Structure formats: structure tokens, C-alpha cells
Description:
Layout: E1 8-12, H1 17-34, E2 40-44, H2 49-63, H3 68-77, E3 78-82, H4 88-98, E4 104-108, H5 115-125, E5 132-136, H6 143-154, E6 162-165, H7 172-183, E7 196-204, H8 213-216, H9 220-238, H10 247-260, E8 269-274, E9 292-298, E10 308-314, E11 321-328, E12 346-352, E13 356-364, E14 372-380, H11 389-399, H12 408-423, E15 428-431
Parallel strand pairs: 1-2, 1-4, 2-3, 4-5, 5-6, 7-10, 8-15
Antiparallel strand pairs: 7-11, 8-9, 9-10, 11-12, 12-13, 13-14
Amino acid sequence: xxxxxxxxxxxxxxxxxxxxxxxxxxxxxxxxxxxxxxxxxxxxxxxxxxxxxxxxxxxxxxxxxxxxxxxxxxxxxxxxxxxxxxxxxxxxxxxxxxxxxxxxxxxxxxxxxxxxxxxxxxxxxxxxxxxxxxxxxxxxxxxxxxxxxxxxxxxxxxxxxxxxxxxxxxxxxxxxxxxxxxxxxxxxxxxxxxxxxxxxxxxxxxxxxxxxxxxxxxxxxxxxxxxxxxxxxxxxxxxxxxxxxxxxxxxxxxxxxxxxxxxxxxxxxxxxxxxxxxxxxxxxxxxxxxxxxxxxxxxxxxxxxxxxxxxxxxxxxxxxxxxxxxxxxxxxxxxxxxxxxxxxxxxxxxxxxxxxxxxxxxxxxxxxxxxxxxxxxxxxxxxxxxxxxxxxxxxxxxxxxxxxxxxxxxxxxxxxxxxxxxxxxxxxxxxxxxxxxxxxxxxxxxxxxxxxxxx
Length: 455
């Protein structure tokens, strides 16, 4: 074990849904793949060690990650501290349980409202000394709360020890955006306003809010996925090449992109809600929270000035898919005199459910006439070999690698973009389940642009 590696893993909210769905599967894969041999300490209000071990087994069975050998190791490494987040004696018991561990990694798998209390108690009990901390999104509800939360955590932890986790950044397909962008020299001459007409990002989910109604009704589509996931995708697409190989070099360029995005105006946002949302469990029967949002964003930078970035995300849509479509400008002259305006060239990055890259072009249709047709060159990534996001991110945090984690300045810059739209939300448009959202979503597009619906 190196001095930089964490020597204990503590997760608060050990009996919660996040631990069940993500943390236990990630831990067992880390044990199987990387020999993750740290003491693993769960902290929760109820139960005991035997109950926690049973819950770990149930998690792995339910999520399809049951590895008998790794499960035995996880059960052997598990420890338990029962207590409350606001009880300093709980944290004193945790400090005793940590024993000789000098560099624990604390994962706050708890509601953000509890972060300040837990951080203060970690400090008071000595558990924060030499430690790192992982905090889950949403990191704040708006710009003001994000700043306050950053200030709270910074009272105890330096920025280098704070890991703001967003599983989207740990996805292989999202990392491939960054790799493809800078590993291929043919992109650089055209990756600018002179050749790119627009950029579209769609994150569509065919399922509804399900059992997450209470959470979702406090968040909405903009807070849930646009302020974090999709603005992060834009930062990877639009950034300049990092001047160095450190995480900070990449973070610097991502921040510049986010800082260049104009704050949203009402005319650049369309909000929607699927019919029947208000009947979901945990949802206010008079809720005005959006389950769909479509945005037009502008980047005030030399490379991207004048190029609209269109973003839409929603629940209960036609399909489940996330993709980026970069549309290139039309040739300056219609050499072959085709009467119908042809579809333009494009690059399509499919991020979920599969991972692929497509190049849209035109080729001559067989026959005497000089008439073309749209063709697509398609490359699909063989899935099944990539590490799941939470496994990657917890492993990276334990090694102190902050590459895939959000930095304070970037989080606040992203909130600046959407803050006005959250403080003064515009009208809500209703849409049918299984559709592509409200018809009003077209109003954020600049003619002749149109939405490209993933298949």
C-alpha cells in the first residue's frame, strides 16, 4: 500500500438505496478486479453487522454481481457502526473502529442536507484527519446553495481531498468523447464554428419517475441531468486540448467552456411534464416540476461563437438513448443541382444504451443521374469489457485520482448557466407518454434546424 492510497473505506447511508444498487456491487468488483483489501465500514441508523452482510448478499443477487469468492472477501472486510449522523458519539465510535487507519475515504451516500452535520462531526471526532471525502450529486440545488455547500466542506477538507462524484463521468462512452476528440487529427481543422452548424445532445428515457417521485419532485430534469451530466458532456466536446497530463489541466479547459456559456434566458428554455406525472407516488398533485427540458445554449468563445448547442432531456419519452449529434455546414454551392435540400454531414456519438460513432455523408445513388443519397459509416464498440462507473470512480478516489470528478469552480460555473431558469421558471407544457416531449420544444431551435430523434 502506498502512502497515497486510502487505507479504509467508510460509507454513510449503508442501508440505503444507493448502497444497495451501486456501492455494494462496485465494492465486490473492486475486490475481484483490483484486490481492494481495505476495511469497509458501513454507518447507518439501524441494524447490525449481520444485517449489513445480508443486505450486501441481497444487493449482489438483485443486481447480478454475485461473485462467491469476492462476496466472501467483502463479508470478511465489512464492519458496522450504528448511530445517527447528528450524534458525535457515533463518530467517536467510528474513529475507534478505524483503528490505525490514517487515510480513510468517506462516502456520503446520504441526502445533501445532512452533509454539513456529517462533515462537522468527522472533523470533531478526528475522522477527517488525513481523509478524503466523496459527495454525491446533486451538489447543491442552485448557485447559492452550491457555494454554501462548498464553503461547508472546505472548512474541513481541502479541495484536493474532495471528490464530487457523478457516475456519468465514469461511463466508458463519455470518456470516449474526450479520447476521440483529441486522438484524431482529422477533427481539429473542422472542429470549429467555420464548419459546424450546430450541436445537439439528447438524453431520452422511456421510463417514468417510478419509485423516485419524492426525490424527482424536488429536482426536475434541469437539476437532475442537465446541470451536471449534459453540461459536462458539452465541456468535453467543446474544450481545448489540455496543456499537460494532470487532472488539473483537463479540469481547467472544462471550466473555461462552462464559464463561457451564457446564462439561460426564458426564450432559450422549454419545460414539459408528462401526463400522469402528478399521480406518481411522492409527487405533489399540483407539481410544476419539469420532467422534460429543451435548451438552446450559446458559448462565447473564439472557437464556438455563433454555434447553437441544443440540449433536451426527459422522462417517459419514445426511447431510452443518449446521443450527441454534431451537424456540419452544407457545402457552399449545390454543384449537382438537387432540388430537395440534402441532409447535411454529421458526426453522431451514441452514449447509451450502446456505444457507437457514426459519420453521416452523401454518396451517388446508382444510375445515370447525378443524384445522391444519405449514407452512414458506423463503428460500434464491443460492450461488456468496460468497468462499471461506480467501480471506476470509487477505485480512483481511493487512489487520489481526481480526473473524473467535478471541481468546485466547474460545479459553480454550471449552476450559473441554469440558475436563472430555476429561479424564474417559465410555462409548463404537457406531453404524452411515449412521445418526444411537447411540440413547443421546437421553438428553441433556429430554423432550419430540427431535432434528430435517436432510434
